[in-house]
Amino acid sequence: MHKHRKSGKRGVTKWRNANCDLPESASTYITGLLGELGCEGSFAVEYLSSEYLSKYHDEDVTPAETRKSNAITKWQSTEERNKVTNLILEHRDPGYNILPRIAYSSFLRFARRIISDVLGPLNDSIVLGSYSGGASTSRRRLASSPAHKFSGQADTTVAASAFVDIIYREAPLLRQFGTFDYLQDVEGSVLFTVPKKTDIDRCACKEPDLNMYLQKGVGSHIRKRLRRFNINLNDQSINRRLAAIGALDDSLATLDLSSASDTITIECVRALLPNEWFAYLDDIRSHSVLVDGEYHRMEMFSSMGNGFTFELESLIFWALCRTTLYFEGISGVVSVYGDDIICPSLGADMISWVLHEFGFAVNPKKSFSSGPFRESCGGHYHHHEDVTPFYLKRKATKLTDVIRVANQLRRWALADPLREFMVPSAYNVWIKLASFVPRDLWGGYDLSADTSLVSPGLPNKQLKRLSRTRQEPSDGSYLHWHNSNWKRTDGPDEPSQDPEDTTSLCRKQAVQKGAPYQIDYFYQEMVDQSGPG
């Protein structure tokens, strides 16, 4: 049992160390926090109330095994639907009117031309990929750094191994170090689940190492080429800004798809991509996935976890939207970020229809083409108001948990100039949360952080997560560094996906003094600072 001491100053709890457990009273308060806000009739509060615990994971509510089982059952059901989609697309009559007076063959020709323009010619340099810090079929998460993947034995599917000679020709340094000299053939990827919502997990797949490397090369290429067409997959704020415009004037719709990455079927990709690109992507993807000890031949083209899935789905959805609007004679903005789609409201229904015709399902609960509400890329808007909620995903047990919730409450409460006065209890709730945080951690400025409390004044200390000490193979570390820098003539093609390898343990660290940061103040904080009169 961790001990703690209390100071008498404003009832603030000061911990002996940053890693002791929160008192149960604090955990209970955070879980039931919304009951303190009140203000019935406020859309922002009511919306937050519906979302706050929607992703909460609690073994007492839904055990992990049940969430995993539910996710696999849903994944298998999606694959059954994909099988039907593949049959429909494979045998569809070219003269079928996918839009009024528009034959399927005409639609495909236009969409394929758009996609071909984005992809450009297929050349040998496309094999130069990269690694992230995620697990692969051969390496668990704790031993899956890019440096480790560049060293030692690597898994591959038989089809992907055929590209090793091209990799070595394009990157002689990898040949010199024998990066892919020791390949182990595997049948495909391995399914696993990650937390998503209260009652269900999300399925993803661990890819073979060489496949992952090649897939990342394709993903980076598509990401870079889409920039030429004003689709920036490095910036979610574009979709958030457009969603806010749609909520304000009803001109733009926000569409969200159900299980989007798991419904990109083989025949959909075959129909839309140039033949040589389809053949290459087909060679480097996993055709089978290990599910509960048995291999399943996939009806989907690529799963979440494949290194090009996100970019490929973005490209496909963008092309289908642009093609639909062209034939419907509707102009306007189209922006995509994965399955987060922004399009003109006038074309939303027809785009939804076309997406359905290619096997995708628009989620009616998260798609909006009329009315005052829009949601895209984590931004939620109602009329002129930013109503983006925050979520409690598990029981608050550590100091970082209470700091995160307090900072998110501040962001939510001050996102709209009038909300603080419509929800006057927000400041009192924030003060209560802040009372659980040591005073020397006050004064932060980053609302997305959980290591210092955003509040007026200069910070004294902040929390820093302790790093794991692990031995990185020197050759692998060098190859990862070199691989990250050998294609920089056009600038970085995507943000780094290698998170710092840290533990959940923290220590306090002194903050270098400097000028005060700009933060949004509660009205009461400004009154307190101004003094009497």
What does this structure look like?
The protein is globular and about 70 Å long. Helix 4 (104-119) crosses helix 13 (309-328), helix 9 runs parallel beside helix 13 (309-328) and helix 15 (399-414) runs antiparallel to helix 17 (425-434). The strands form 8 sheets. Strands 8-7-10-11 form a 4-stranded mixed beta sheet. The protein has helices at residues 24-31, 43-51, 64-90, 104-119, 146-149, 158-161, 164-170, 172-177, 209-227, 237-249, 266-272, 275-284, 309-328, 348-357, 399-414, 419-422, 425-434, 474-485, 523-530, and strands at 4-6, 13-15, 97-99, 102-103, 154-156, 183-185, 189-195, 201-206, 252-256, 288-291, 294-297, 335-337, 340-344, 373-376, 379-382, 385-386, 442-444, 453-454, 461-467, 502-510. It folds into 2 domains: 4-62 and 396-530, no CATH class; 64-385, no CATH class. With 533 residues, the protein is α+β, with helices and mostly antiparallel strands.
Oligomeric state, counting identical vs distinct chains? single chain
User: Can you summarize the main beta sheet?
Assistant: 4 strands, mixed
Class by alpha and beta content: alpha+beta
Figure out the total of helices.
19
Helix content: 25-40%
Q: Report the β-strand fraction as a percent range.
A: 15-25%
Q: In what order do the strands lie side by side in the largest sheet?
A: 8-7-10-11
Low-confidence region ranges: 1-14, 496-500
Average pLDDT, all residues: 88
Q: How many discrete structural domains? A: 2
Distance between the termini: 48 Å
Care to count the β-strands?
A: 20
Whole-angstrom Rg? 26 Å
Tell the overall outline: globular
